[in-house]
């Protein structure tokens, strides 16, 4: 969609034109949903969040006239909404874990419980990072870290060079560090 057409749609939507809104929705919804699904790896949640974004856009249509780039605006909304969703999910999960741990370990040290929660969150983030890896990198990482195989054993089993195994492990660890660092920046 070119910029002039988009501006015309934005102007029309800001005045309450439902057909213009539908056109923007049909154009942008699949992209926004795909973006969110790529982050959450859950199509149902991605669809719900995407719909919420467009509902919010319609409810705040009078504010749309100041938007220069609707694509950037929608993706920024999507990113912020996903981060809030993840934060709420983590907080809810933490709350549930804390309640469960309090009921079973009422006399346990609070620091120990907190450390366990952080360890579980870290484990979850690592599993998310691993699942997003390309298949060969994921396989090599799992063989190394979960099965405890050496680089030579992995290279032999997969019929690839030891250097390729090392490169994949280096990239896998970089992926994990990047995701963990990203979430630490956002949530702490």
Automatic annotation (TrEMBL):
<dbReference type="InterPro" id="IPR013249">
    <property type="entry name" value="RNA_pol_sigma70_r4_t2"/>
</dbReference>
<dbReference type="Pfam" id="PF04542">
    <property type="entry name" value="Sigma70_r2"/>
</dbReference>
<dbReference type="InterPro" id="IPR007627">
    <property type="entry name" value="RNA_pol_sigma70_r2"/>
</dbReference>
<dbReference type="InterPro" id="IPR039425">
    <property type="entry name" value="RNA_pol_sigma-70-like"/>
</dbReference>
<feature type="domain" description="RNA polymerase sigma-70 region 2">
    <location>
        <begin position="24"/>
        <end position="88"/>
    </location>
</feature>
<protein>
    <submittedName>
        <fullName>RNA polymerase sigma-70 factor (ECF subfamily)</fullName>
    </submittedName>
</protein>
<comment type="similarity">
    <text>Belongs to the sigma-70 factor family. ECF subfamily.</text>
</comment>
<feature type="domain" description="RNA polymerase sigma factor 70 region 4 type 2">
    <location>
        <begin position="127"/>
        <end position="175"/>
    </location>
</feature>
<keyword id="KW-0804">Transcription</keyword>
<dbReference type="InterPro" id="IPR014284">
    <property type="entry name" value="RNA_pol_sigma-70_dom"/>
</dbReference>
<keyword id="KW-0731">Sigma factor</keyword>
<dbReference type="Pfam" id="PF08281">
    <property type="entry name" value="Sigma70_r4_2"/>
</dbReference>
<dbReference type="InterPro" id="IPR036388">
    <property type="entry name" value="WH-like_DNA-bd_sf"/>
</dbReference>
<dbReference type="InterPro" id="IPR014327">
    <property type="entry name" value="RNA_pol_sigma70_bacteroid"/>
</dbReference>
<dbReference type="InterPro" id="IPR013324">
    <property type="entry name" value="RNA_pol_sigma_r3/r4-like"/>
</dbReference>
<keyword id="KW-0805">Transcription regulation</keyword>
<dbReference type="InterPro" id="IPR013325">
    <property type="entry name" value="RNA_pol_sigma_r2"/>
</dbReference>
């Amino acid at each position: 969609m070119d910029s002039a057409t988009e501006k015309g749609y934005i102007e029309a939507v800001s005045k309450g034109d439902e057909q213009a809104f539908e056109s923007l929705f049909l154009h942008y919804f699949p992209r926004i949903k795909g973006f969110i699904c790529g982050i959450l790896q859950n199509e149902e949640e991605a669809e719900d969040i995407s719909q919420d974004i467009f509902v919010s856009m319609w409810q705040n249509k009078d504010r749309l006239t100041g938007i220069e780039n609707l694509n950037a605006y929608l993706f920024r909304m999507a990113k912020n909404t996903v981060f809030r969703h993840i934060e709420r999910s983590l907080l809810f999960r933490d709350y549930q874990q804390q309640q469960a741990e309090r009921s079973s370990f009422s006399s346990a040290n609070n620091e120990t419980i907190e450390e366990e929660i952080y360890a579980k969150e870290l484990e979850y983030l690592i599993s998310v990072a691993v699942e997003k890896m390309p298949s060969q990198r994921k396989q090599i990482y799992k063989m190394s870290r979960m099965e405890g195989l050496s680089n030579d054993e992995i290279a032999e089993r997969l019929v690839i060079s030891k250097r390729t195994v090392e490169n994949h492990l280096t990239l896998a660890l970089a992926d994990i560090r990047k995701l963990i660092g990203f979430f630490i920046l956002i949530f702490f």
